[in-house]
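[job 0412] stage=fold_complex status=start
inputs:
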Amino acid sequence: MTYKVPYKDMQLLVAQAYQQQGLDAVESLEGFDPELANAVMEEAAKFASGVLASLNSVGDVQGCRFQDGKVITPNGWQDAYQQFTESGWIGLALPEEFGGQGLPKYIAQPVNEMWLSANLAFVMFQALAQGGSEILLNFASESIQQRYLPKIVSGEWTVAMALTEPNAGSDLGALNTKAIPQQDGTYKIKGQKIFITYGDHDLTDNIAHLVLARTPDAPAGSRGISLFIVPKYRVANDGALGEFNDIRCTGIEHKMGLHGSPTCSISYGDQDDCIGELVGELNQGLMAMFVLMNEARLSCGLQGVALGELGYQRALEYAQERTQGTNSQGEKAAIVDHADVKRMLLEMRSETFALRALGYQIAAQIDATEAAHDQVTLDETESNQSKKARVALLTPIFKAFATERANVMAGQVVQVFGGMGFVEETGVAQIMRDARITTIYEGTTGIQARDLLIRKVRGDQGKALTELLADITQLASFFEIDETFGVAAKETLKAVDTVTSLLTSHLLKLDVNSVSLHGVSVPFLEAMGILCCTWQLFNVLAYQQAQENTDKPYMQNLRSMVKFYTAYRLPSAMAALKVVENAGLGLSEYEF
Amino acid sequence: MTYKVPYKDMQLLVAQAYQQQGLDAVESLEGFDPELANAVMEEAAKFASGVLASLNSVGDVQGCRFQDGKVITPNGWQDAYQQFTESGWIGLALPEEFGGQGLPKYIAQPVNEMWLSANLAFVMFQALAQGGSEILLNFASESIQQRYLPKIVSGEWTVAMALTEPNAGSDLGALNTKAIPQQDGTYKIKGQKIFITYGDHDLTDNIAHLVLARTPDAPAGSRGISLFIVPKYRVANDGALGEFNDIRCTGIEHKMGLHGSPTCSISYGDQDDCIGELVGELNQGLMAMFVLMNEARLSCGLQGVALGELGYQRALEYAQERTQGTNSQGEKAAIVDHADVKRMLLEMRSETFALRALGYQIAAQIDATEAAHDQVTLDETESNQSKKARVALLTPIFKAFATERANVMAGQVVQVFGGMGFVEETGVAQIMRDARITTIYEGTTGIQARDLLIRKVRGDQGKALTELLADITQLASFFEIDETFGVAAKETLKAVDTVTSLLTSHLLKLDVNSVSLHGVSVPFLEAMGILCCTWQLFNVLAYQQAQENTDKPYMQNLRSMVKFYTAYRLPSAMAALKVVENAGLGLSEYEF
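[job 0412] stage=fold_complex status=done
writing structure:
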């Protein structure tokens, strides 16, 4: 499927995030400036729009196949994988110590967005390598790090995350896979896992499975789960590949979308001969998962942005080519000139833009907090904690809202295509089918909403949320006296005030287990998502105005997006907040 | 896919619509009372939940095939078709004169809903037979009626509607198919049509194509389109089948959903040997289409209800079986007990219920207007015109809103299933894929919104809309002093007042071609959809209370739905009206 990298947006938003998060002042990031970012993006763009994008429909049409116990990836996957790893893309944001390029996240973010737009099914191994590496860097022994990380960072081996079991999905505490301690300190792993992305494939010689399992005397529930690294082929102390480790793929799922990404069922230790090593402390497996999950959730939110962009490009292209009906002069009109089609396109455009801005700011903020890790004065530590809290607060919003919206937008893309969108050959149905899983994996929207409300908002008595609202207020107040944006700014402030008052009247007050609270968690997240997008649009406008951006058409479109978004989408935030205020009315009484 | 007929709702809503539309007082409907309706529904239910439902996934998995120029329907389709027609279901609401059962629409509505829930792809021929018959009854010569109607009504032949061409979709005025007059009064048809549902298949010996085409001297655009009946095999004067009529299927679409329904490309008169007969007057083809379209739009809205019901049943069943996480007592909890899952389920339940109520009222109202056709006094004529205007007003709302919501709900069904929903074997992805076309065919949501705003609202200077709002006001006022529903009633009245004031300030006032108007047509329709659902829920509650319905659990759930819907969904109507008020801000300025 054709995909053009949205350079102008990316460069502008990358540079803005870099400046606004103060990365220019960070010593350890010297040299890693937007100029480097642009050079990296340029390279990545060629590969994304070229090789990867052209394989996107191949992956969808052909899909992965499961034959004789083996997973065969679609035609072209192997070549593309080799090119991808040889160009060093896997290790882009991984430590130089293990062969990576050690780039900050703010540069990796637009690059990852390109991969995800170009071919989501293909590049799923990339986020796994990134997440898996971070787990090993944080929790694994030096021996494991030395044996595994160089291979993972180079892409010589891939990573698989084996979490889910048939009866343990969102509730990982229910899992049953066993890990039996052996004399030599290793563990024998035995159990069945499902939904393992790239759990088996034909791209590399080895696959490092990170498996959640229970030791025999572990406590019940989520406190008794440990993490193990379990390679498909054993790894000797010198890193050499050894014998088969009794890991069998028993099948792959026939999915609605993402056909090019194998989703495997794996049986560990069928012959009692599957050996794993403990990663981190016993029974602390879920803690390691939290590291991964934050990473994965941000990556998943970025998938929302990427699919939104891809869909928007396809819809716009079609709307500009397809004529139907006449304009006011009685001439044949391209459907982009019909106001309702324009509405759909601008909805996709403005929301994708705003979510991209949000995603890039989050990435730069993570860089800032990591760089500040070694700062010593109390003040800076506090400011850093507050930045970390901000990232933690925004993560579930970004993950859930960007993916929910990507689903809505993908539906709109099909709608713009009309009957042709329903026909698979046009390719846009694939976007919709691929997008469907993004609100489910890495924690459903419901789970993100609970995380937001219970951990992130109630967890600190509303501190991080209040700080966020203060930032939005400051920005909106700046526009309050603006002739063009005054009304929009006032509406934004009204939404902020509503959240503030709901915080004390409902969100912090209601019983933590009440239906009144949990029954409105998703509407609350939705309201926050729209509010964050509004904030980001105002933020880009304010910053670009201050920078005296001289690109007139770009600035005009930016102003148009701010007007449009606040006119069309902000009312939905108010509606969602009204739902929060209604606190689950009628919900408990219904007997199914 | 399992489907249980929602008897209780259907019977209750059928009886209510019958009473409220005054059908008990209609002489010509004597005997066609709710008792008969129940008996018919009972019979239909067996067939729907039995044969049809069990073939639903077969159709999806196997799909139709195109081999050697022929369309082969999925396994079981032929048998099911035979059973369907032998039981007389095609002619259920068609005139007895031609072999039908002549049942009123209010009885056909729940029956059709069953078919659509059970197997949408299969029964698409049914709406075609119904719509095609109505066209012939209204416009065709007696000779055509005599030769075709008995065969269509019995199901011996099917009907295909050949409208769309590659460059003429929503804009039928652009079509190019030719009709050359012959000496004997017939026409030679020549042209290519696409997207023809059941345009070819292996279910019957003959197919009656209703083809839109242009005669050589016809005016350009939509004023030069005529309608022809063009059989696959010619039909002699005595009704006997003659030779092949040069109609060739050139392929079927590979669609996202509705795999069991063949969507054909058809070439008419490749060998210059395709003969058609004019139906109605020359150049009046679109008028005939309008008859069909109203019929088809109501049927399409009902598809939204039917898919909503099917999805709700699957989601509820899964949510009651699947355990994940714990309840407040620390016990394993079925996910139906998680407030956010309950929210999704009740959203589907209440909206589907409300839309069903709306659909049944519309059907009964059509019966009432048709029965009143022969009434003579001026008063009754006026009241009847006003009823017709009501149906005309509600038609685009019902079509577009019910199908848009079916898409949202189908997405929610997958969400309730989590990862399992993304796996095709569970079957719920099919509901989402099937639903996707419903907001497109029979006029996209954008086209319905334009019809609503321009023809139905502005066409009579807001008269029909004002009458509708008055009815909603009357009902809401009744609940305004109610202890439990007072707040919900007040919110409803607020929404009505907002529509009323927007009518004069915007909807009737803005330039008819303005972006400010067309750019908010879909939000306006959405607001009206929610408002109509609210109205219907209050209406059912009021009526059942007045009837002193003694089914306590049912009444409790009904009250819960009214509370829930007004708390969760009514705010979105207000948001959509706010968007209307914002009148396309930012939309014209953006340069794509």
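[job 0412] summary: Chain B touches chain A through 90 residues (CB under 8 Å).
[job 0412] exit 0
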